[in-house]
Amino acid sequence: MTLIEITPEKYDVDLDIRYASSNNFTAAPVYKRAVCFLNEEAAEKLEQAIQLAAAMGFRFRLYDGFRPTEAVQALWDHTPDPLYLSHPSNGSPHSRGAAIDLTLLDTAGQELEMGTEFDAMTDLSHHGALGVSAQAQKNRAILLGIMTAADWDFYRNEWWHYQLFRPRRYPTLSDAASGAEMM
């Protein structure tokens, strides 16, 4: 399986790869490099979503894409919570290059208010959470509409997570197998 690097220059997105920094729930870098990869189908569907967002005056900030199996294990070892993380034995849609974590930016490059931070492991992160502001609910609905129109599936517990339908048709990849050199 080929992984495509998603760069700001080619895809007109902003990258904030959280697992390459300490700005994530582990409070430590998990990746050595701040890069984003997707499998070929996911990269094509991201391009569709980017076009739909642009037509509405939005851009995307990407937090994560392909996540090597070593990173899936490291995150699980830190916080073994099946509501927000895939058990390593199941294989994550991220380790298949079939998932993307993202948010919307306005025309000034500012993140839209979504009610929680990325990777907030709380009920407020769920789609349809009523404990967030009406503006955050609206912004989440816009993101959901764009992504589903571009043929992405969503994960109900995380407003930022979208994945391909039937991601298990793709193999899970380690860092070595992917050639991504992230770990």
Automatic annotation (TrEMBL):
Per the record's keyword annotation, is GTP-binding included, yes or no?
Answer: no
Reaction(s) this enzyme catalyzes, per UniProt: D-alanyl-D-alanine + H2O = 2 D-alanine
* InterPro entries in UniProt: A_A_dipeptidase (IPR000755), Zn_M74/Hedgehog-like (IPR009045)
Sorted alphabetically, the keyword list is:
Cell wall biogenesis/degradation, Dipeptidase, Hydrolase, Metal-binding, Metalloprotease, Protease, Zinc
> What does the function comment of this entry state?
Catalyzes hydrolysis of the D-alanyl-D-alanine dipeptide.
Q: Give the SUPFAM superfamilies listed for this entry.
A: Hedgehog/DD-peptidase
Indicate which residues the UniProt annotation says bind Zn(2+): H94, D101, H161
- Give the family per the record: Belongs to the peptidase M15D family.
Q: What is this protein called?
A: D-alanyl-D-alanine dipeptidase
Documented EC number(s): 3.4.13.22
- Catalytic residue list: E158 (proton donor/acceptor)
For the site labelled Transition state stabilizer, the residues are R67
Q: Which Pfam families match?
A: Peptidase_M15
**Does Iron-sulfur count among this protein's keywords?**
no
UniProt GO MF annotations: D-Ala-D-Ala dipeptidase activity
**Gene that specifies this protein:** ddpX
- Record organism: Sneathiella marina
Record note on cofactor = Binds 1 zinc ion per subunit.
- Cofactors demanded by this protein: Zn(2+)
